Automatic annotation (TrEMBL):
It comes from Kibdelosporangium banguiense. It comes from the Bacteria. This is PilZ domain-containing protein.
Amino acid sequence: MAFDDHAEVVSVERGLRICLPAPEDVLYMFKVGSRIQARLVWVNPHEAPLDGEAD
């Protein structure tokens, strides 16, 4: 989750929680080998869903 002054990452397993200055700072922590990489996904809750997507 990105906030104005920091980013929070909460894992769904093992109770991992990380607080960093920016969302991009988290990416390197979740790279595993050359085949698995984390990606940032930005969500705009005010944007209308695309056709066929649930609200």
